[in-house]
Automatic annotation (TrEMBL):
<dbReference type="Pfam" id="PF22673">
    <property type="entry name" value="MCP-like_PDC_1"/>
</dbReference>
<protein>
    <recommendedName>
        <fullName>Cache domain-containing protein</fullName>
    </recommendedName>
</protein>
Length: 244
């Protein structure tokens, strides 16, 4: 390819990279707002003695966010251990179902073998470890949504203390459609992949969502016209190959 041709490719790739990053980052705004609302609702001295009713005022905003965002399946707050009085696990989480928006009820009893133990999940533990946003999936959330989701979580801090995460479960099909729209004008076959090489979206039929590439584009960049990491918190990359 000529220098002029590669310049055009790189310019188009840069525009697509910006568009995809803008789409990913726009999900952080409502989660950041929720994290701030949860933090404001918790007095530092009350951490460890909080009860469900202390956070009840947050429910209306969670429901409004779900009503305003058809691509969001679930939305809410997930507490760290010893934040709620007498509870190691606690969720104030609302979910969209066919019969409307309902609060999610899961088995959170520490003595039950069917406990939904979210503490070691990639999205919860990742947000806690990084003290920043994380994206995990798509994956089948058997215990929570019971279908395929993408989860974004941001840490909730009260002072210097991590008290949980504000999170959202996104519909992967809706996310894929939104991403494909931003790849359509690229002069080649574009693909968005996770750190483990799983395809999230593709601008052509060359790759299908869920397929795993033989090698990550960052490890073999010479095989691509262009490749770059997307928003660092996402762990995703965008790569462009010559048309097959």
């Amino acid at each position: 390819m000529t220098d002029v041709g590669m310049t055009a490719v790189n310019e188009a790739f840069g525009r697509a990279l910006d568009a995809v990053n803008a789409y990913l980052n726009h999900w952080l705004e409502p989660l950041g707002l929720l994290a701030d609302e949860v933090s404001a609702a918790i007095e530092p001295a009350s951490v460890g003695s909080l009860r469900d009713e202390d956070l009840a005022g947050l429910a209306e905003g969670m429901i409004r966010q779900l009503e305003a965002s058809p691509d969001v399946i679930g939305h809410g707050f997930v507490a760290a251990p010893d934040v709620m009085s007498g509870l190691e696990h606690y969720l104030l989480w609302f979910q969209r179902r066919t019969n409307g928006i309902r609060r999610l009820k899961l088995n959170l009893s520490a003595t039950d073998p069917d406990l939904y133990d979210y503490l070691d999940t990639d999205w919860f533990a990742g947000a806690r470890r990084r003290v920043g946003p994380v994206l995990y999936g798509p994956y089948v959330d058997y215990a929570g949504a019971d279908f395929l989701v993408l989860t974004i979580a941001v840490p909730v801090m009260v002072g210097e203390r991590f008290v949980g995460v504000a999170g959202a479960d996104l519909d992967p099909d809706a996310v894929e459609s939104a991403l494909v729209m931003r790849l359509r004008n690229l002069p080649g076959d574009a693909v968005i992949v996770t750190e483990d090489r799983s395809v999230v979206a593709s601008g052509s039929a060359r790759w299908m969502p869920g397929e795993r590439l033989a090698a990550h584009p960052s490890s073999e960049p010479d095989g691509w016209l262009a490749q770059a990491a997307l928003a660092p918190w996402s762990g995703w990359s965008l790569a462009l190959a010559a048309p097959a």
